[in-house]
Amino acid sequence: MCEWGNTVVLDVPPTTDIRFNCDESKPKTRVTVDRCLAPEIRTLWHVGIRTTGCCCGHGGSGFIGVVDDDIPAMELLGYEHAPHPTYPERRDNFIPKTKVPDGISPPRHWPQL
Question: What is the pLDDT of residues 15-41, one digit of tens each?
């Protein structure tokens, strides 16, 4: 996990339609994510998962949010549900698989999709 503010801006692939936290009349073309989760988010986009948000947790509990239609695919990929702090019945948040020690970010040379 990385420190708060250690982020990167990712170009959203044209096949990934993200319309959350913005003007929903048009898809986002770039999003900011925690640096340590960037490779995992890119991989999810590559296999067609549409994310709604993510956070590594910065030493706490992280999550990757997905659209409801992609919940079964995340389960098939072996992701475990992350409890939602306000709405425990929600099933659209998952525990990231990225395991990085606190305060360390993946190297910038990690492969990009």
Answer: 777 766 566 677 778 888 898 899 999
